[in-house]
Design goal:
The protein is an all-alpha fold. It has 9 helices and no strands. It folds into 2 domains: 5-123 and 148-181, no CATH class; 201-255, no CATH class. The longest helix has 33 residues, at 144-176. The two termini are 37 Å apart. Residues 10-105 form the MADF domain. This is MADF domain-containing protein. Residues 119-152, 226-260 are annotated as: Disordered. Residues 119-130 have a biased composition (Acidic residues).
Length: 260
């Protein structure tokens, strides 16, 4: 039996409940019997085998890591250029995996830092070994170029790390505000979709057919009468009264009282 998006999201919701399966800091993370019990509970919740659930989670996590990496790198590129648009993933399960956001960020930051210019002897600036009593060297023996290199590159690394941190904070803020860009139509569409899912397939098809009929009816009225207003009910203008009475029942139905 194939995995649907709905079943996959249900799997992620249950996976999130058992922290010892994904959080190394959990005290039961290394207890094998606890993990086995956790997967068995998840399997019963989604109606699949425990082995199938494990494989599906592994596959979903691989995709999430790729998408997360794209989003972060895109944010850094946009921040560096001062223009452009941050990559916005359309993968259905991305938001569901946000509870793992902090777990994967540190690894990605390290990879991003490794992609910057190499900085030799990063910790040399704090090396106290140079302060130990030693024979006074002559001026020609002082390694002047390496000293300048350390002084020049250590601040560069700090600046790069700070920049990456700011970019990630900006990204997280942007992700939290994504929903605010949705208008009333987007929100109503989601609400209507949730209601449709509660109906049987036959009822759902009939309901969508009636909604389409209402929309077609409204568009027809606008074409026939440019003065027809945006009100969800027919205009009381006399010229529309007889027209409404002569319409077929399927067209009249779109002027019934709004559904609660």
């Amino acid at each position: 039996m194939e995995w649907t998006e709905e079943t996959a999201l249900k799997l992620i919701e249950n996976y999130k409940l058992y922290k010892h399966l994904w959080d190394p800091k959990d005290r039961e993370y290394f207890k094998k019997e606890k993990k086995v019990a956790g997967w068995n509970k998840i399997a019963r919740a989604v109606g699949k085998s425990a082995e199938s659930c494990k494989k599906k989670v592994a596959s979903l996590l691989a995709t999430y890591r790729k998408e997360r990496n794209k989003v972060i790198k895109s944010s850094i590129r946009v921040g560096a250029a001062g223009e452009g648009q941050v990559y916005s993933t359309r993968w259905f399960a991305y938001e569901a995996f946000q509870f793992l956001e902090e777990r994967y960020v540190p690894r990605m930051v390290k990879r991003l830092l490794n992609e910057t210019e190499e900085v030799p002897e990063i910790t040399a600036e704090n090396d106290d070994s140079e302060t130990l009593p030693t024979p006074q060297p002559t001026e020609s023996q002082i390694p002047e170029p390496p000293t300048k290199l350390r002084r020049r590159n250590a601040p560069d690394l700090q600046e790069a790390a700070l920049y990456v941190k700011e970019a990630i904070n900006t990204l997280n803020t942007a992700l939290q505000k994504i929903d605010s860009y949705e208008d009333d139509c987007d929100l109503y569409g989601k609400m209507l979709a949730n209601k449709l899912r509660r109906l049987s397939e036959t009822e759902r098809l009939q309901f969508m057919y009636e909604i389409d009929g209402m929309f077609i009816c409204r568009q027809s009225n606008r074409i026939q009468d440019p003065l027809y207003g945006p009100s969800p009910y027919p205009s009381p203008h006399p010229s529309h009264h007889s027209d409404t009475l002569n319409r077929p029942p399927s067209i009249k139905s779109c002027y019934s009282e709004p559904m609660m």
